[in-house]
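Re: Re: token formats

Sure, here are both.
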Amino acid sequence: MDRLAEMEAFVHVVEQGGFTDAARKLGVSKSAISKHVAALESRLAVRLLNRTTRRVSPTEIGLAYYDRAKTVLKDAAEADDMVTAMQAEPRGALRVSVPVSFGITHLAGAVLAFLEAYPEVEVHLVLDDRFVEIVAEGFDLAIRIGTLADSSLLARKLAETRMMLVASPRYVAARGTPRTVDDLTEHQLLHYSNLSTGNVWRLRTIKGQERQIRVGGRLTANNGETLRRAAEAGLGIAMQPSFILGNAVSEGRLVEILPDHPLETVGIHAVYPPGRFTQPKLRVFIDFLAEHFRGMGPDNWHS
């Protein structure tokens, strides 16, 4: 006989206090319940129930088995629900947090294509460079750029980007080109105020030695696109990721500074709470983004 059917019959007998009420609860005959319980006790070679003419109660072993059987039946039901949910039509609202520059320049196009492909899904896109608390603030998903902190959240890498130092040809013509990391201290440096290291750039020389360069230029901003525009205007040297700077460099509006010096390459991830991936709307959205950004590496954001 089916082990789950045996467990279910036994659990209902314990909870209903007898075979008759258990049979009524499950919508089967009393004899079917009796056969399931008898088969279970025979297979386990143990008595699970104390039977009298007036009542049925679990033995000590039966009570312990009841607790585990409840868990097994619950897990089996949740597994069935998960499969059903994963096959359901994606629908409902998704609340997504994304950094401003990446959202405007790259994610917005992907979201528009996604909405066209999945008409029953809504996307509430929140563009903010602030580090949001995904669960506490009610987000289904966040796009995170950089090294991920240890947490209970799950992540899927979508692409990679690398940090770049850039300036305009006009700035270089007027102020000269830095040849070493230490030369940067003699230049106007455009400061990104959301940098985890504060107003310090941590850079490495060609030989791998770390340098800490204090940033003290004329402009501070919490948005990378603003700093790109300032660099294009000749106001100084900016350090921003290639997904912001790629087009400007490929089109000659900016030139890369210290291109031979190693700068950090970081991942762009979709981050979401455990258990949410079973939701069709979230699963198809993450899969769609992964396909949209497939092959996007540190040096091809200009394409």
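Second one below.
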Amino acid sequence: MSPPETKARVWAKIFIYYALANAFSGVFGWMSRRTGPNLTLTTGLMWGPALAAFVTTWLFGGRVRDFAWGWGNGRWQWLAYLIPFFYAVPVYLVAWTTGLGGFFNPAAATKVAADYGLGALSPGVAFAVYAVISLTVGFVPKTGRALGEEIGWRGFLVPELSKITGFVGTSLISGLMWSAWHYPGILLGNYNAGTAPWIGLSCFTAAVTASSFVYTWLTQRSRSLWPAAFLHGAHNTLIQLVLTPATRDTGPTAYVIDEFGGGLVITCVIAAVVVWRKNAADEAATTRAP
């Protein structure tokens, strides 16, 4: 029989998990800094949290099969896929219509036309075809890599934190831990978008911590880690493969768009408030129910 889940035991699990996640991912991050961008090493880095979750669970006598592997109601996966469109697209629309960023980027269109064999099409049409391919086929490998993180952050960390704190505490702590895990790549690697380090780090931390409210809410409501993986995959696909490449730099652009600009901070905070209020209303309704 497993020992009782005291707060001290839960914190010990969380501490060991986080240390292992940083260690496992750090090996691949160190290799990446020596070789430059490498998709295989990036995959290994992103699966560090999953490996840490598996090892920590084993060390504490748990069972990996008890993670929230169930698919559940498919509407949660659809909702997770669509959520990034609601908080990311408005940021880019504001940038494009105000001149803070240009639409679209001819250099990116020319490159994807060559890479995807679309040279016979006009640049705009070629980029549109590329965007459709990215948001469908490209979503699959992006989500496969994101799953490695989500097994750790939402499959292991969120359930553990939920044993000792509420929704807000779970979201804040997991969001800050998730943000800090990225810091070596931001400060020492090539995971940035051209902003000054302290600004990029601040915006990234604020946006990721705010978005963790959405991830926690999805995970707890669906009782599955898959919606978080879909949200993470859709976020990376939409922003990294479509919206940022479509945007032409007009000077202040990097400080507005992407994960290191201020735009996503605003929209992710709005999203956090929405799900926080929704969660509070649901908890109140459950309390009032006979």
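The CA atoms of residues 100 and 251 lie 7 Å apart. The chain has a mean pLDDT of 94.
- S.
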